């Protein structure tokens, strides 16, 4: 590296040190960074001093932080840890003389202080005068997730070293060591001469540290001789967090580590609780909707246990209020995801399958408008529907059967709006687009199958929904190794667990009694109060699963229900709540990123808005008075590239169990305004506590990772449809008000004077054997137009109100849909400029 002469600055107090060169330019710092790939892990070290303490801080890259030493005078070197060594007289003697001290701090928070002796040995010394703090970005001792690393800050009193504070120009022997015990057991040393365990406590192989006054131009240029400048403004706060401007970057040093940081995050598997939801009940014989699953033909009850309000006309899949009460109770019990049990064949589509989903979605909308918590929705695909559709067990290797298989999945997710679909982020080829959840019932209703159905559905689902699928299913599919996790229905008969897939799943049940179901002879499994259920949870938690599925929220036929019932009241709701707390652990902070709509591509010259639904799953409320905010940081190849100055403060208290909507502006730039170059990046979103500027990831929480690309977008006119707040069931000819939220993902401004929101109506059906074919027919309606309320810049979100009236151009009401119709109406919003639709 060559630098012009005028860039050099030699402070008079250290200019006589010979080998030491101090350079007043950040460019020179690059000289000590190894020329390795960005993905290589490293530790960044900082030092400073004053009249009382020597200070040091380390930011260590570590994808799998481990540690068990949490106390003073423990053995931190058994963990991921940082160790520093100082020889105060700079004699570089062999071994550890009485002039040497050593301090080690574990990522888990334990520490040890040792001193040398005249015979070259060393021993621990119990002191309490030093200060230190560890902070973890990730979760300790959890190999299932990806950690960013950890931070150690420490301060050692000079008197504990047996010396007075140094004067500018003082040199001591010094070394820093990073130990790794996670994915790889190894250590890395600042001094290149320390290469083995026997070298670690040998001061003759340590580097030097040169103490200077508060000189802004001081810089470290060599790992064999580092610089420690006296702090200028105020001493560092020893809190386990390296704050901007707290430490002198010019005198920092880098220790390359013999591990690599993954370029993409691992699968982001949060601890999740789901339940099966049987929504096939119809207890009102007066309705045209088929009376079903409540009474036998002779009038006897078809249920072993009964709902708490009794199975009257209100106990019905086409009653929004019934769904609303059940969904609300699920969330009160701590359940994250509801899995409606879906039958997609002709008979059930004409009955409960589609209409019940519509009513469930209306219930979710009401809960959302009220600000009440609600579970997100996945799909439990009851494969019994294949036998119902074909009259026999079909072969899923057959192309036509695959068409039916996908048609049923498509029908389900067309009826569940994106805003209510459960999302899971995976770190493989699915990274960047959230996965919806499909859980498959037993393959025993199929005559044959292979793994090809997964790719068949994935390709079509990605095209139709711009999303991926997280596949779960019965353990009978495990032989094909085609799903992400395996769990068999029926935990009412006994707890289950499988770690055969990426997602480790446990299933628990309350008991089982299907004596009311004619023709069955299944053994009864007694509930023993709540004892059986507690026992299932105990065995489940012992396996440390990612997911727990509580079997049969409201399976009254089989007497395995957990919901409120006449037999057990709300006992199992309350017990579920307690067990879920045990499952998640006593975490003060636990942020759940429930839903997001971050754009895949962000241009350099743009601020793009993104919306999040965030849940507080910890045991500490997020109070406005304390100040909590959502922020993000830019990473590339596992390495922090840029902090963001954006912190979106929450404007309301969020109690444990509650959710909050947050909109954040994303700019491809750091806090200093430096614009990022085009390329692939990783955005890490997390909550931060504003009172002390601590990211919650430093307090045991997790960040949320989204891969994005910085670069040009591929279309001038492109809309990302985020939400349409309005009814999913409408009376023909009546007027309804909607609020539509859409983001400008194109490259040009939408002008308020020339662009408007409108809608189109389609009659659509999906291929299902014996029921319907793929068809899409536009129905001519007198569609209203709603002009944009303002110009909408690229990256900006706008909410547009619009009134929808489903009449034809002659003012006549359109035909009413019936449950027996194989098709459904689909209302599709679109932007129009002049006479040209954006789509």
Task: Give a verbal description of the structure.
This protein has 839 residues and is an alpha+beta fold. The chain folds into 4 domains: 5-64 and 133-260, Immunoglobulin-like; 272-584, TIM Barrel, CATH 3.20.20.80; 591-710, Immunoglobulin-like, CATH 2.60.40; 719-837, Sandwich (Immunoglobulin-like), CATH 2.60.40. Helices cover 12% and strands 30% of the residues. Mean pLDDT is 90; it is low at 1-38.
- By CATH, the architecture of the largest domain is named Alpha-Beta Barrel
Report on the biggest sheet: 10 strands, mixed
Proportion of strand residues: 25-35%
Decide which structural class fits the backbone. alpha+beta
* Assembly classification: single chain
Mean pLDDT: 90
Task: Determine the CATH superfamily of the largest domain.
Answer: Glycosidases
Number of domains: 4
Tally of helical segments: 9
Q: Which topology of the largest domain does CATH recognise?
A: TIM Barrel
- Number of strand segments: 41
Helical fraction: 10-25%
Rg over CA atoms: 31 Å
Classified by CATH, the class of the largest domain is Alpha Beta
**How would you sum up the global shape?**
globular
List low-pLDDT spans. 1-38
Q: How far apart lie the N and C ends?
A: 54 Å
